[in-house]
Write a sequence for this structure.
């Protein structure tokens, strides 16, 4: 664990929680840093909708295959268990859990993952979602890494609250719904850009995000402008 | 725990209203069902757009009707804000100072109609945002978490009913009961549906609303689940075209 990198990450995350930050963009940054500092192969933030269904808000890779692996956990898997109990779930070797989660374990292995961890996103008494980490090689998780991962899950929760306080609504339920809708918007924009440019979903997401950052715009505003064809968006949607 | 339990229950409530009315499920049935199950006195819905004029779609009573018309005429009020911000605007009591600042004309005019609490819920699926569902009560009222979740589910269903009306209008699927197919359609949220919708805007050269309608129309006509059709589009096994029927390429890539 590189402590300077760790300190730098938390400063970076705090710096990004500015007044008009974009939630999806921020959560993607967070999942990227999970990969960078915790040695995870993939990371995702899942948020429960009003009916308790877990939905992907951000992932360190936007490929359809990985998103499916997160979504699959609405039926079974570490995120569902973590969400239901509010407790971290750590699986150093997925081969040992094929009976517990037959479909999830098989799919995760198909993706080349050997170990998985799910950490609760908790808001007072409510569990609102989970941070999901995958590693390619099986083996025990670094005991120093787990509290850091939990701290990052807490930062993800804080970002939801921050988002909430900058808008008018004070109802968490409704606020989560709005956050989930902005994720749907991003998916639609990814599809449009991927089709137009002949690129894959991860490349489409990266292009949208790069454009937003380069032009100091919110990711969801750029996504909206792309879908509505209201702006030329030079360099993005040629 | 069934994730789609609420959505199913809401759909059944709406279907009951349609049966009572003796018609196929329409947005008006969503309004009457919402009024029957929430602590509100009336409901109304308006079609809204960034590019064309907005107009009222339906309302359950005179007050609702006036509220819809007021907001569209004045260009201010909770439904205007809900549409603009893409989030629900919950106003438990119109008679509070700050609201008079937000909507100086609407707040007083709405109180005059007899409304006291107004809840505006956007109809939306990402960038698809065809309108707003407004609920009102004649007394100050706060929706609890369950009621709000139900209200959001009514708005979600209203979005689908409103969009599916366009399929029915073009007579694409043989319709043997809108409710049946809506219930079959409960695949839960899937990212591929949104991605496929975005892809279809390019393949068909249409807006996002129309792309979603066409994706659903195709799934109904083929008798396939929406998630399956969407996954085929995303995997580039199925391609839509403006002039011909969608074509399949079954070489799995």
């Amino acid at each position: 664990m590189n402590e300077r990198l760790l300190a730098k990450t938390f400063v970076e995350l705090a710096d990004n929680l500015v007044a008009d930050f974009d939630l999806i963009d921020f959560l993607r940054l967070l999942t990227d840093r999970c990969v960078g500092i915790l040695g995870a192969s993939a990371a995702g933030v899942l948020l429960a909708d009003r009916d308790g269904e877990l939905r992907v808000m951000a992932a360190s890779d936007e490929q359809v295959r990985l998103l499916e692996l997160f979504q699959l956990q609405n039926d079974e898997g570490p995120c569902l268990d973590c969400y239901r109990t509010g407790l971290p779930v750590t699986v150093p070797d997925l081969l040992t859990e094929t009976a517990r989660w037959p479909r999830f374990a098989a799919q995760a292995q198909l993706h080349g993952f050997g170990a998985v961890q799910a950490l609760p996103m908790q808001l007072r008494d409510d569990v609102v979602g989970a941070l999901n980490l995958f590693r390619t090689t099986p083996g025990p998780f670094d005991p120093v890494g787990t509290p850091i991962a939990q701290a990052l899950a807490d930062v993800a929760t804080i970002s939801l609250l921050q988002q909430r306080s900058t808008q008018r609504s004070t109802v968490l339920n409704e606020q989560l719904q709005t956050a989930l809708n902005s994720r749907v918007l991003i998916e639609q924009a990814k599809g449009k850009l991927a089709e137009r440019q002949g690129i894959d979903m991860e490349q489409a997401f990266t292009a949208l995000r790069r454009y937003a950052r380069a032009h100091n715009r919110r990711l969801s505003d750029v996504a909206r402008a792309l879908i509505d064809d209201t702006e030329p968006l030079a360099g993005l949607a040629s | 725990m069934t994730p789609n339990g609420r959505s199913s229950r809401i759909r059944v409530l709406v279907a009951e209203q349609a049966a009572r009315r003796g018609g196929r499920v329409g947005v008006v049935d969503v309004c009457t069902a919402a009024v029957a199950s929430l602590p509100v006195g009336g409901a109304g819905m308006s079609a809204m757009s960034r590019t064309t004029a907005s107009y009222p779609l339906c309302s359950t009573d005179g007050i609702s009707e006036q509220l819809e018309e007021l907001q569209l005429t004045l260009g201010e009020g909770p439904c205007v804000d809900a549409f603009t911000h893409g989030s629900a605007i919950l106003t438990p009591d119109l008679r509070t100072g700050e609201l008079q600042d937000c909507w100086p004309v609407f707040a007083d005019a709405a109180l005059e109609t007899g409304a006291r609490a107004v809840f505006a819920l956007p109809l939306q699926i990402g960038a698809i945002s065809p309108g707003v569902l407004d609920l009102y009560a004649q007394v100050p009222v706060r929706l609890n978490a369950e009621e709000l979740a139900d209200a959001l589910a009514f708005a979600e269903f209203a979005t689908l009913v409103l969009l599916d009306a366009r399929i029915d209008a073009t007579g694409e699927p043989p319709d043997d009961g809108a409710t049946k197919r809506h219930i079959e359609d409960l695949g839960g949220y899937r990212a591929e549906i949104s991605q496929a919708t975005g892809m279809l805007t390019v393949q068909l050269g249409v807006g996002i609303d129309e792309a979603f309608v066409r994706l659903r129309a195709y799934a109904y006509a083929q008798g396939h689940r929406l998630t399956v059709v969407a996954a085929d589009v995303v995997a580039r096994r199925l391609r839509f075209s403006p002039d011909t029927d969608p074509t399949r390429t079954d070489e799995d890539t």
